[in-house]
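pls design
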């Protein structure tokens, strides 16, 4: 009996010893795995998650899945950010991201060039220490959200439209758009409207004056006087008519491309009618000649070419005193193209005017141009027509001796008859 009890006690002791060893091993296992978790957590993101068995393996597998998902999300966000920056970089407008403290977080290439910024070196610097234009600083300081115009601060002649836009948490975006060209066009448009109004005002005033005189006291004048007044009124209204016609021609030249299926113009017929018109304008006061040895056909718009050529001839007649010569010439060029030139021995042009003659309403002598029926638009029309036909206009002139205007057409614009 006593032996059996002793054996039982020994058995229990052994079992307890075994249990202790198992518990110790389990403790060691947990301790080791906790250590591995702790050291994995200290590793940089992406370090492989340790492997184990049992509950720990389950835990490690969950951690590994979480880690993978967060890495994937991070990669996705990085890709999106990169794409977003690439898109912003490609914008023609300038973009600057500012932090809450108004330091530069990022600049695209356009903004770097507009404001002379360095996209690397200037990151983290206060924007107002680099872009100091008072209007811009005022905008930032007073939270003004409307666009402001900055002129010539960083680049001579550059006009920028700049707008500060709030975003995120207290951050700001600076958008800058180059409006130099737009401003120039707008100024040209305003000048043009002012010029047209001015051109119309004088003849209108004259016509109004005569109409009022005739209405108030028409019967006090003789029939011959009234006839004279009416002919002066007609002269002024014809002047307005010419101006409106030239304006319409110019606007139709600017409005549309040259039609694709272009006409083939018979150069001999074109030149003959241009010569005829010149002779009618000269009314026998000048000697007009035509030398034509150039290609038989010109590819382009008959109406436009007629308008350009006859403007050149009309100028030669109008700016050449009575008894002078006007020579028209159509000849082949060495490069396979052909040239139409009009040479006169008239009043000529001072060299300083030559570069500006094709500007709308540019005249060397206002009075002379108007008295001879000029609108100031003839050479602008010539220039437009020639540009549309790929041709070049060259002008040479000697004051007091005469001028020569030459339109040079490229080979693709001329043809011989098949
Ligand atoms: P306008 O209607 O005044 O003649 P254009 O545009 O045809 O306008 O010409 C612009 C200016 O160029 C003229 O006002 C004139 O001063 C000058 N010009 C043009 N052609 C000649 C020429 N053949 N000889 C001298 N001056 C010319």
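designed seq:
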């Amino acid at each position: 009996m006593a032996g059996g009890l002793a054996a039982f006690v020994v058995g229990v002791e052994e079992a307890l010893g075994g249990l202790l060893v198992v518990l110790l091993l389990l403790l060691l296992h947990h301790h080791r795995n906790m250590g591995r978790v702790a050291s994995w957590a200290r590793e940089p993101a992406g370090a492989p998650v340790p492997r184990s068995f049992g509950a720990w393996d389950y835990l490690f597998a969950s951690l590994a899945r979480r880690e993978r998902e967060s890495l994937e999300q991070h990669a996705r966000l990085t890709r999106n950010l990169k794409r977003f920056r690439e898109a912003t970089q490609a914008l023609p407008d300038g973009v600057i991201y500012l932090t809450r403290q108004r330091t530069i977080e990022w600049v695209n290439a356009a903004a770097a060039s507009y404001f002379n910024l360095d996209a690397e070196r200037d990151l983290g610097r206060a924007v107002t220490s680099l872009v100091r234009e008072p209007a811009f600083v005022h905008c930032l300081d007073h939270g003004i959200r409307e666009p402001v115009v900055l002129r010539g601060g960083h680049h001579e002649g550059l006009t920028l439209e700049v707008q500060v836009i709030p975003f995120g948490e207290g951050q700001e975006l600076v958008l800058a758009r180059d409006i130099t060209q737009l401003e120039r066009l707008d100024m040209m448009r305003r000048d043009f409207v002012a010029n047209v109004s001015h051109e119309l005002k004088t003849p209108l005033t004259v016509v109004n004056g005569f109409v009022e005189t005739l209405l108030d006291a028409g019967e006090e004048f003789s029939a011959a006087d009234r006839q004279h007044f009416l002919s002066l009124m007609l002269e002024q209204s014809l002047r307005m008519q010419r101006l409106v016609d030239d304006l319409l021609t110019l606007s139709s030249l600017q409005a549309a491309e040259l039609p694709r299926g272009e006409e083939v113009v018979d150069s001999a017929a074109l030149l003959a009618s241009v010569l005829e018109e010149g002779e009618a304008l000269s009314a026998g006061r000048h000697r007009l000649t035509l030398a034509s040895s150039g290609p038989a056909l010109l590819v382009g718009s008959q109406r436009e070419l007629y308008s350009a050529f006859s403007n050149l001839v009309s100028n030669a007649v109008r700016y050449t005193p009575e008894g002078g010569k006007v020579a028209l010439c159509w000849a082949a060029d060495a490069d396979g193209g052909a040239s139409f030139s009009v040479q006169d021995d008239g009043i000529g042009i001072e060299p300083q005017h030559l570069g500006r003659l094709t500007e709308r309403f540019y005249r060397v002598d206002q009075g002379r141009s108007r008295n001879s029926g000029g609108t100031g638009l003839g050479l602008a029309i010539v220039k437009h027509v020639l540009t549309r036909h790929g041709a070049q206009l060259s002008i040479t002139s000697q004051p007091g001796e005469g001028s020569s205007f030459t339109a040079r057409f490229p080979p693709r614009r001329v043809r011989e008859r098949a």
